[in-house]
Design a protein that fits this description.
The complex is a heterodimer of chains A (250) and B (325).
Chain A: E1 2-7, E2 9-11, E3 33-35, H1 37-53, E4 57-64, H2 68-78, E5 82-87, H3 95-106, E6 113-117, H4 128-136, E7 140-150, E8 153-160, E9 163-170, E10 173-177, H5 189-195, E11 200-204, E12 212-218, E13 227-231, H6 236-245
Parallel strand pairs in A: 1-4, 1-6, 4-5, 5-11, 6-10, 7-10
Antiparallel strand pairs in A: 2-3, 7-8, 8-9
Chain B: E1 4-7, E2 10-11, E3 14-15, H1 17-33, E4 37-43, H2 51-57, E5 61-66, H3 75-89, E6 93-97, H4 100-113, E7 117-121, E8 123-127, E9 130-137, E10 142-148, E11 153-157, E12 172-175, E13 185-192, E14 205-209, H5 219-229, E15 232-236, H6 238-242, E16 263-267, H7 273-279, E17 284-289, H8 296-299, E18 302-305, H9 308-324
Helix pairs in contact in B: 3-4, 5-9
Classes of the chains: A alpha/beta (250), B alpha/beta (325).
């Protein structure tokens, strides 16, 4: 089974975001970058599928700057075999431009599965995976929490409001991983050593026109200063009065 | 004339609340552009009753694409039908809800139309004739403002962001064709969750619990308070989801759901930056925590410091009384 996992280098979720001087991006000084949290589930799923099949290859594909090689090595340490870096110093805001670049790379790769994390922790678009599915004309299921593959057919669960959809599809397919799909492993020392030697093919990327322009990046509106109503159960009466008369939510 | 296409969602033939928000947002945008609103209903049979509610929320016309396969979400057929309709109507914008369905559907529509997408949008506007949008990024730690430089603007709209008024439009019903395309994925079955149909991302009130509850069995306190409010969903912090106390569907925060309820009650949640990112757009935040220095109190409008095992039962009792009175 040949599996592509599309991963992204993103700021650690602990990061406090500061806006850069250009007013449209973040100040990267001092920011720690990590493998996108949801991509961990995609990588783990690919590794488990390869292990179960007893043969195959897990290729990590990423679109990003030179520094994204470090992120790819994180996936290598877990067990991925090799990487393809579509080198771009700036990633377009238009997810479709990104999806087109990835689809062009994946199209003739002969992959049985193309996996994504459900959402990237930076742009929060949740768009590139299903766009790639559409561009490649492949079955696509997003936010998968459970996956069964038997022969050339798969059944995936995806969480919806108040329930779960059970979705059937045929391979090859594009899937995006939701938390809960599996439990990502930790890298072993042997894996970390091996990761240094795994090959990364660096390719230039040309983007289609971006039809979405970032006008500004701003801090979220500040919440007005809150207050401690009181201590212990004795404060509940006052809280309920405030919710009713001041906040008018009760 | 710039028309807006509002794509609605139905479950078992009933239009979802969030779809009225989508129609209302489309109405506001159409009014700024001097255009009209078409609401598109995709469903099996029995979706004809949708017209009145959607007209009231702002739809000039309600277009119904009926197909036996559309009773459940049919990704390929829905996307192709919306795209075909969007092409036929030369819309300035196509708006869907950023729900489980909408987040899956919107990127497919954008890809089919070769059009730009803004996901999880919290505000829409028009500047110099161009549609603009604001959307939380970095899990709510920053707001990105974007301008669409291609048409139509494809938008998914965050639930619970737009307060629906009465637009009093006609909502005249028309049938439109359902697209016939190869079906690549099929929703075979929908399993209802034990927690019930009220999702944490769409509820008016969210009562969430964290580590301070000390064990999964004490979530009864959270559930009782949610019941007292009546229209509340139960939420959970990442810590308790990772510990297996609660399902991931209830997780609020960076690796869970982002919520914007009218009221958010945090019980025994310290308020890690990832959690605050997921609920800071709630209109009113109440926190109960024993640590007066917990970061959650910086985000909360109202806080009570103390033992939640003493405070929450009293709170539940008072809310019950307030609701009854």
């Amino acid at each position: 089974m040949k599996i592509a996992v599309c991963i992204k280098r993103v700021p650690d979720t602990e990061t406090r975001i500061r806006i850069a001087g250009d007013g449209v991006s973040i100040d990267e000084a001092g920011v720690k970058f990590v493998l996108n949290p949801y991509d961990e589930y995609a990588v783990e799923e690919a590794l488990q599928r390869r292990e179960k099949a007893g043969a195959g290859e897990v290729v990590v594909v990423t679109l990003g700057p030179e520094a994204a090689q470090e992120t790819m090595r994180t996936a290598f340490a877990l067990g991925a075999d090799r990487g393809i870096l579509l080198k771009a110093d700036a990633i377009p805001a238009d997810a479709l431009a990104v999806a087109k670049a990835l689809a062009a790379e994946l199209k003739d790769g002969g992959y049985d599965l193309v996996l994504f994390g459900k959402i990237a922790a930076d742009d929060c678009s949740q768009a590139v995976g299903p766009m790639v599915g559409e561009l490649l004309g492949l079955p696509c299921v997003t936010a998968v929490t459970k996956l069964e593959i038997e022969g050339g057919a798969g059944v995936a669960h995806r969480e919806i409001e108040g329930g779960v959809e059970v979705v059937a599809f045929a391979l090859p397919a594009v899937l995006s991983a939701e938390k809960g799909l599996n439990t990502p492993r930790y890298p072993a020392l042997k894996g970390i050593m091996a990761a240094k030697k795994k090959p990364i093919e660096v390719k230039p990327v040309t983007f289609a026109a971006s039809h979405l322009r970032v006008v500004a990046l701003e801090p979220p509106p500040a919440r007005k200063e809150g207050r401690i109503v009181g201590e212990g159960p004795g404060a509940v009466g006052e809280l309920v009065r405030l919710l009713r008369e001041e906040a008018k939510v009760l | 004339m710039a028309a807006i296409l509002a794509v609605t969602e139905q479950r078992d033939g009933a239009v979802r609340k969030v779809s009225r928000e989508v129609v209302w947002a489309a109405r506001q945008l159409a009014d700024q552009l001097g255009g009209t609103v078409d609401a598109l209903v995709l469903g099996g049979s029995g979706v004809d009753a949708a017209g009145a509610a959607l007209g009231d929320a702002g739809a000039d016309r309600v277009l119904v694409a009926a197909d036996a396969a559309f009773a459940r979400y049919a990704p390929d057929g829905y996307a192709a039908t919306v795209a075909a309709r969007a092409r036929a109507g030369s819309y300035a914008a196509v708006i869907v809800a950023a729900t489980a369905t909408g987040k899956d559907l919107a990127p497919r529509i954008a890809a089919l139309l070769d059009a730009p997408l803004a996901s999880d949008v919290t505000a829409l506007g028009v500047e110099n004739g161009t549609v603009t949008a604001a959307r939380p990024v970095y899990a709510g730690k920053a707001i990105q403002r974007v301008a669409f430089e291609g048409s139509p603007a494809v938008v998914s709209l965050r639930p619970n962001t737009f307060v629906v008024g009465a637009a009093g439009k006609g909502g005249a019903m028309e049938q439109v064709p359902a697209a016939r395309v190869p079906v690549r994925v099929t929703v075979r079955e929908v399993k209802a969750s034990e927690q019930g149909a009220l999702d944490v991302a769409e509820a008016d009130v969210v009562v969430a619990g964290g580590r301070g509850l000390k064990g999964p069995e004490h979530f009864q306190l959270v559930e009782d308070l949610a019941k007292a409010f009546g229209n509340a969903a139960v939420g959970a912090s990442r810590a308790v989801v990772d510990a297996g106390w609660r399902p991931h569907a209830e997780q609020v925060g960076q690796t869970g759901k982002t919520v914007s309820p009218t009221l958010y009650v945090a019980l025994g949640i310290s308020g890690a930056i990832q959690h605050l990112a997921g609920m800071r757009t709630a209109k009113v935040i109440v926190a109960v925590n024993r640590d007066k220095d917990a970061p959650i109190f910086k985000a909360a409008d109202y806080g009570i410091v103390g033992d939640l095992f003493e405070i929450v039962p009293r709170f539940t009792e008072e809310v019950r009384k307030a609701k009854a009175g």
